[in-house]
Specification:
Blueprint: H1 6-15, E1 21-24, H2 35-44, E2 50-54, H3 72-77, H4 79-82, E3 84-88, H5 95-116, E4 120-129, E5 134-138, E6 143-150, E7 153-157, H6 168-175, E8 193-197, E9 201-205, E10 211-215, E11 220-228, H7 230-247, H8 263-278
Antiparallel strand pairs: 1-9, 2-3, 3-4, 4-11, 5-10, 6-9, 6-11, 7-8, 7-10
Helix pairs in contact: 1-5, 6-7, 7-8
The structure holds fe (ii) ion.
The site of fe (ii) ion (FE2) has 3 residues, from loops.
């Protein structure tokens, strides 16, 4: 079975890895992706692989959201009325979902690896969201294709390297172990591009491109397939290097976006990390 038609694969190849865009897919239903399957899956995952959040959050949140992980299965089955969004993380821990992830990414692999090299750390996330639920403004370190399976949502994506959307210091704090949620100001709204997707449509989100999600008027189910690349790890390590430079009272230059590789700072940080570990 082909999930991404050839036209979608070509569109993806033209835009990957830096340009957010929508693409078609054929995964409009799947026995592993209905609400009963998700509820069942939530009972098999460790609690730290579950996020269970209130759906009535503002676009910008401060601090760590309250979690209701123990209620995930019940919340998923009652998602129509629950007023929540549930994220099941790293569902590839279960063999049948690992197989699904592999199948989905296998079609894109020939479009991805010629550009950003070997696909690393493949992960899969599932989302069940109540009508009108909001996922607040944040960024993620992975290359990400979010496929809509049921219901609709609008993913509003902001430019990855724009310091008006997320300051360099915030990037640096995140890569040193900080939270992904980002401060939000209404004057940033005009910098975002909304991508509306329904069943059979997906959106690609570049590495560290800030985004928030607003759900449509129905229950939504989506699946996110993600991977890292040596480029994304180098960008992350260059941010860590910059955090160290900033601690010394200097103002470092932000890592350049792809196709620049940021190798000097990344290798510098990796060497420092090794030395620190060796020093105990
Ligand atoms: Fe995200």
């Amino acid at each position: 079975m082909t999930i991404f038609p050839v036209s979608a694969q070509s569109r993806f190849a033209e835009n990957y890895p830096e340009v957010a865009h929508t693409l078609k897919h054929g995964l409009d239903s799947h026995p592993l992706l209905d609400l009963e399957a998700l509820a069942d899956l939530s009972g098999k995952l460790p609690l730290d692989s579950i996020e269970c959040n209130r759906g009535d959050q503002p676009i910008g949140v401060d601090g760590v959201p309250e979690q209701f992980r123990e209620q995930a299965a019940e919340t998923i089955l009652n998602i129509e009325k629950a007023g929540f969004w549930v994220c099941l993380r790293n569902v590839e821990q279960q063999p049948e979902y690992a197989e699904l992830l592999e199948q989905l990414l296998a079609e894109m692999r020939p479009r991805i690896e010629p550009k950003t090299g070997r696909m690393l750390n493949l992960q899969c996330f599932l989302f069940a969201t109540s009508p009108g639920g909001v996922t607040p403004y944040h960024f993620d370190p992975e290359h990400n294709i979010l496929l809509q399976v049921r219901g609709s949502k609008v993913m509003t994506v902001f430019p990855a390297g724009d310091t008006a959307c997320a300051a360099d210091e915030i990037h640096e704090a995140y890569h040193r172990g900080g939270r992904p949620e980002l401060p939000w100001r209404e004057d940033m709204a005009q910098r975002g591009t909304p991508f509306a997707i329904g069943p059979g449509e997906a959106v690609y989100v570049p590495v560290m491109a800030p985004h928030y999600v607003t759900n449509g008027a129905e229950v939504s189910v989506s699946i996110s397939i993600t991977w890292r690349s040596e480029w994304s790890y180098a960008e992350s390590d260059a941010r860590c290097f910059n955090a160290w430079v900033r601690q010394m009272g200097l103002t470092p230059k932000a890592p350049a976006r792809w196709p620049h590789q940021n190798r000097a700072k990344a290798y510098g940080w990796r060497a420092m990390r090794k030395l620190r570990r060796a020093a105990g």
